[in-house]
Each structure stands twice: as structure tokens, then as C-alpha cells.
Amino acid sequence: MAMSNRDEDLMCGGTKKHEDPNAPKVINSKTIVDLDVHCRHRNIWSGLVEPVVFSVRRETENGPLILTRGDLKVETDTSFLAKIQEIIDEFGLVKINGYYEYTDGILPEFNNYIITALYDSSERLHFDTKGTPESKWCAAMRKALCDELVRHGITDMLPPEEDRKLRRFTLEYNEWPLHTDYTTIRTQDDEDGKPTMHFLKGIWNSETKETEYRKIIRIPEGFYDRITELVEETDLRSFSNGQIDFPSSPFPGAMIMGNGFGTMFGTQPAEEIDRKRTPSIHYCAEGESGKQFNAFYYGDKIPEGLMEAAAVIREYLDGVFS
């Protein structure tokens, strides 16, 4: 893939940009026949910025579509290119068709975000611009590439298995007046006195200040295998923001039971602010390696996709308790 070269006279910190006036901002075809992608993504597991560089094309006129990533080549099909087109449409990438921007002196991961796509209609999408490792379209490109390689049995873009396989999970909803918690807890009720892992579902009514539901179950066989599968299927991990904007209302009894997970409830007092009435959603998951990923959103900051993903897991959890 051709990379843009900066002008020799561009001073450190200087920016050069231009736009091709003939580059269309609407592409009628949805059928990509040749593709190059170059962007960067911050891996939430390692914290490192990693390149996402791949291409798809036919190496002979009537040959199969070949997906190339570095020295790796696998045969793919039009369904993968259709997924790439969905990403282009979702993030409106055609709007920056023909755009070029380069800033000298900044870190490499903030320059040279490139897509070149040729369509069956001979229309062309091409831009070479600044980006950020947190770009949502770049994350979507990485996921599409990872999913396609996994389909071929190539898993090197996935986190290590000990990170992916979960051993603890917490999900919280604040839906005024109800605050619902699903969480792993530790108890001391085994016959031999050894601590064992249980799971709690609790519903607290902030208006009546009463517990509407509270049940603790011994974690059933295969529980965390299924949670792990659902997290992968719903791509819940992609919504992680690793921050807590404000503490949630503690569920009465959580501190007494000792959840042993360091979740928000039961570990710190709730702020006496009107956000008790603000819808919120929080999750935290921990792999067998001890690595965690979590998210906290409230109000109009809650992504629709997160609500849909969490609802799938919530349905499973409710089924376990029923």
C-alpha cells in the first residue's frame, strides 16, 4: 500500500492538507472489488497501539478474493467486503473521500489513516488523513478483520485465552426507581469453611428505600463459560471505557455479604446528587488472568449498542435466577 510522503519543507508541527475537488461524496455502488486499509487501534487488553493493515483483491483475473495481512494470506469472499462496506456506510467515510492531511512531528499513530476502495462501478474511495487510536471506525475495521481471521482458525488478534475466559462478572442498571445488580460474591457457607463463589441478584427501590428482590445462588456448572460466550457474541468488550463517573447506589446487603470483586456498590457511599434518577449501566468483567475490563455510562451517554448487548446477557442472568 502506498504511504503518503511528507513534503521536505514541512516544519515540525506544521500541517499540510488538501482535498480532491473531483472526489465524490456519494458512491452509488455498494460492491467493493479491491481494498486497502491502514489505521491504528488501541488494544484495550494490552494498552498498546497496534496497526490494522490489510488488503483484499484477486491476484489473478478470475481467481478467488485473497485477504492479505503482512505475510499472511487467506482466501475470503464477498461477505467480508460487504462487512467493510457496512462500516464505511455506518461511519460516513465517503464524506472524507479525496481528503489528505498530514501533520509533521506528531506520533505516528495519529497520521496516515488510509482507505482505498475500488468498486465494481469504477467509483473510488480514497483518503489519507490524521486519525486517533480511539477512532470507532478503526475499531470496527479491526473487529471485522479479527472475525474474518478467526473464521479461518487464526486467533492471533484475540487476547490470550486466560484473558478472554471470564471468572467474575458484574452488571448494574439504574432505572429509577429501581437499581438492579447482578454480581459475583464470596461467602463462607461451605461445610469445610472454605470461601466459595456465589452469584447475587438484587433489586433496590430508591423511592421506597426497600429491597424488592434479593437472591443468592451457587454458581451453576458452565455459568462462566456461557457468560464468556455471550460477552464475545455481543462484543460487550468494545464498549469498555474504564472509568467511573460517579458511584452508584450501594445495594443493601452487598457490603455485609462482601462481594470480593471491588465493584462500585458496597465499596463507597453514593453521592447525594440527583443522578440517582439518571439511567445508568455499568459492567465489570475479569478474566482468569486477573485482567479486567469495565464500563460505566449514564443518561444520554449510554450507547444503544451497549444496551442491546447487555440486554442479551441480562436475559441469560434472569433465566439463571428463575
Your description of this structure?
- It is a single chain.
- With 322 residues, this protein is α+β, with helices and mostly antiparallel strands.
- The protein is 21% helix and 33% strand.
- The strands form three sheets. The chain has a six-stranded antiparallel sheet with strand order 5-4-3-2-7-8. Strands 12-11-10-9-13-14 form a six-stranded antiparallel sheet. Strands 1-6 form a two-stranded antiparallel sheet.
- A hairpin with a 2-residue loop joins strand 4 (65-69) and strand 5.
- Helix 1 runs antiparallel to helix 2 (136-151) and helix 4 (223-234) runs antiparallel to helix 6.
**Number of helices in the DSSP assignment:** 6
Task: Sketch the major β-sheet.
Answer: 6 strands, antiparallel
Reading off the top of the CATH hierarchy, the class of the largest domain is best stated as: Alpha Beta
**Count of individual beta strands:** 14
